[in-house]
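Write out the 3D structure for:
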Amino acid sequence: MSAAPQQARPFPWRDLMALFLGERRMAPRDFWALSLPEILAVLGVANGASGSTRRSDLARLMEAFPDGG
């Protein structure tokens, strides 16, 4: 029996915008100029944060700021 394929999740733009623009008060032009490695560095990925920590942080943000729909 094969496992069911995983559905792709939408990228959490709203969560990132809430974090960068809201909590960190970054200017919108600066946010949109960030590269993915820069975003990951700010989130702590480059600082050796564990994968489970990143997932739990993202899960917390996604719960706090769910996609509308």
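The mean pLDDT is 80.
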